[in-house]
Amino acid sequence: MRGARTEGAIERALFFCTSLSIATTLGIIAVLVYEGIGFAREVPLGSFLFGTRWAPLLEPRSYGVLPLVCGTALIVAGASLLAVPLGLAGAIYLSEQASERTRAVLKPVLEILAGIPTVVYGYFGLTFVTPLLRDAFPSTDIFNAASGAIVVGIMVLPLITSLCDEALRAVPLSIRQAAYALGATPCEVSTKVVLPGALSGVLAAVILAMSRAIGETMAVALAAGSTPKLTLNPLESIQTMTAYIVQVSLGDTPAGTIAYHTIFAVGALLFLMTLGMNLVSHRILRRYHRAYE
Prior knowledge:
The chain is mainly alpha-helical.
């Protein structure tokens, strides 16, 4: 009888936690929609989504969000170029090549990177990465997209490595042994047998890591700057969507103004982008999922 009451209490507690998570998400959506309506009443949707100049705080005012989207895309693309190859290579090594003793040392060391405050990454990019870039490319701005992309790539590296490692280790040992029995080399087993077998998990890990990169704030605000610019040059100063939200949320913008409503308009667009990437990752998992017995 006592055990049944305990089980019932645990079930209610878990239900409460789940309900709280759903309610929080719905609350966030409600706030974004409510405040975003005020912005939509004054700025046409087409001008917001396809405008090429973002200056909501300066005269003449302009509300084209493409420079912020472009800056965010530069950071995500640069971080992907760094983190995906290194993270996947590290996962293959940890899963297929490293001994249990080596794995027990390297895995926690990698995961320590995830515990470093993002503001530290920002200062690292500003004081260490940027001087190296300026030595190699003298035309590099002090605040630049390349520095921001590098530090964000380092930040998401443990996430990609850990998730890909788990996906690779989920491939049964019997498949590896069958490949070795056919004369495959360790490299061929890792890249042509195990990696394709864990493809769904690897792709989902990459997309989830890039969703994390899209939402990064302090590191890119410190390293990449606050200049909304429609450019593909990674050596120039840019501004991401999250960095703009930080800039306007400092308390100097009066509530209820159009500049205030831009925070929620940009936040809603960022929410939709992140949600879309998460939905794509779940679709990939369902589409390419392989069940091993």
